Amino acid sequence: MTKQRYHRILLKVSGEALAGEGGYGIDTDILGILAREIRDIHKAGLQLGVVIGGGNIFRGIKGATKGMDRASADYMGMLATVLNCLALQDALEREGVNTRVQSAIEMRELAEPYIRRKAIRHLEKNRVVIFAAGTGNPYFTTDTTAALRGMEIGAEVVLKATKVDGIYDADPKLNPNAKKFDRLTYLDVLSKGLKVMDSTAISLCMDNSLPILVFDLGQAGALRRIVNGEKVGTLVTTE
Would the pTM count as exceeding 0.90? Predict the structure, then answer.
């Protein structure tokens, strides 16, 4: 990489993306691919924070629809993200990448407590920081966590890794005529009800002018191309 578009990013990975075709648990092949993609851009000097969802293990809102107390279900979902974060930490360190896991729920034997200034210091020391346990509060998604942590660490963009290559006006897996957008505004996403991130996360990014780029995690080299400034996925910005 000769010229990078970004210096510090927040990468959001859905838990479902780690499950692969199995739909549940962690696909170690996908985890290895993700770790190598992160390794490549990290070695080029990029500062990187990561937020991972827990939907491949447990989704709080789904538990609530089955009669569970919503707060209890959300705390269980937060713990599921910790499993994914520890798995990514292991995969990254096997690739020679120094990491720190910071958890919004204190569990000192497994991770550091989340401290904003310490997270920034880790980034400055060339460590990848993996943010676990969401915001530490029920009723908030890991999308909102990604927007919040992105702003707290001074990220220039939130990269939302999904199973599709951008934002469409309909589900491209169900509708072959679905139209892909190359660029959208935050208001477009909210007014059209596009399923990119939840409305709280979109609003946070809009209020603080933090761009969101949605891309396909399965495309080899996608992260490297994004960092190099190539057109990949769909960019959501103010205008």
Answer: yes
